[in-house]
Write a structure and sequence with these properties.
The relative contact order is 0.05. By secondary structure, this protein is mainly alpha-helical. The chain starts with 6 loop residues before the first helix and ends with a helix. The longest helix has 18 residues. It is built from 18 helices and 2 strands. It is 62% helix and 2% strand.
Length: 315
């Protein structure tokens, strides 16, 4: 029997059933050959996943590489009981912590484009959630964003992966999403807009990517993680702009600053956003002009804001 064929090639070219039959038949004739094929560096996680029951039935786990053994342990724990990724690391392979991060990356990287079945997708989604909530490494953002867009492209649910992705608490997570605004794929652009729906004015922009970059650079110092968006909702808003800080920054040139703060907080959210944006623009143009403007009564600032908006709308 020829043993040099790759398990990866069999799965991709002949299907899962043929792969399972091939491996079971080979076990009866040459168990060492099976172990060697299973431990090939080029093997992907989906192939290990579809062979996991065969590995278990024939007690092959102890012969697997650390990578494969840890992956199957993670898989077993995820499927045994649904777990929240924000909880302390619950998996049973903590005696090998130095490998866990790289194994999770391998699982998501090699498995994000495969659909297989619901249980498989649960494993991949949870693995992605562990990367973003436990390890929070910046390099993992691109990996999980790719998974997110693959899910959308396949017409599958994106709620959990979206939640897990933004649970990284890394503001830079917005950047890979923003880059998709440049995609030639209209569906990718539409999904990126959907994910960035909390950016006021983005939908009306003729150049959404330029608008996003300008918004990101302007608001980066004022972005706060939205603790109220941890539910699996269709309109997750992972970050909010701190309009109060953007409006007054560290302004302390008036004795009535506390009163001004109370007045600002009483405004509507739209008024806060518009006034904060105007304050920022004046501050960037001229610090002295901004200090003079900040010493005006809030009512005068609001009137000036309305005049500026009217002039803009009249163009």
């Amino acid at each position: 029997m020829k043993h040099s064929v790759s398990l990866e090639i069999i799965r991709k070219s002949e299907g899962v059933k043929r792969l399972e039959h091939y491996v079971k038949n080979l076990i009866d004739h040459d168990k060492k050959a099976v172990i060697s094929l299973l431990n090939e560096d080029t093997l992907s996680y989906p192939t290990i996943y579809v062979l996991s029951s065969t590995v278990r039935e024939h007690n092959l786990s102890k012969h697997l590489s650390d990578r494969n053994r840890i992956a199957l342990s993670i898989q077993k724990d995820i499927l045994a009981k649904e777990r929240a990724p924000a909880a302390p690391f619950p998996y049973s392979i903590c005696d090998l912590p130095q490998y866990i991060h790289s194994v999770l990356r391998w699982m998501v990287e090699t498995g994000s484009e495969e659909k297989l079945n619901t249980r498989y997708r649960l494993v991949i989604d949870r693995a992605a959630g562990l990367l973003t909530t436990i390890y929070q490494h910046p390099d993992d953002l691109l990996l999980v964003s790719k998974l997110l867009f693959n899910r959308k492209r396949a017409g599958l649910s994106t709620h959990y992966v979206t939640w897990a992705y933004f649970s990284s608490h890394n503001i830079a997570s917005l950047l890979p999403i923003g880059e998709k605004l440049l995609s030639a794929d209209e569906e990718e652009v539409a999904f990126a807009r959907e994910l960035l729906h909390f950016i006021t004015g983005l939908d009306e922009s003729d150049d959404p990517y330029a608008y996003f970059r300008s918004w990101y650079e302007e608001n980066l110092p004022y972005l706060l993680h939205n603790e109220n968006s941890y539910e699996l909702t269709a309109e997750l808003a992972p970050y909010v702009v701190d309009h109060d800080t953007k409006y007054r920054e560290c302004f302390s040139h008036t004795a009535s600053s506390n009163l001004r703060e109370d007045e600002f907080h009483s405004l509507s959210e739209q008024e806060k956003e518009q006034l904060a944006n105007l304050s920022y623009k004046i501050r960037m143009r001229s610090r002295s002009e901004w200090i003079e403007w900040m010493n005006r009564p809030l009512s005068a600032q609001l009137k000036f804001m309305e005049e500026v908006q009217h002039d803009y709308d009249s163009r």
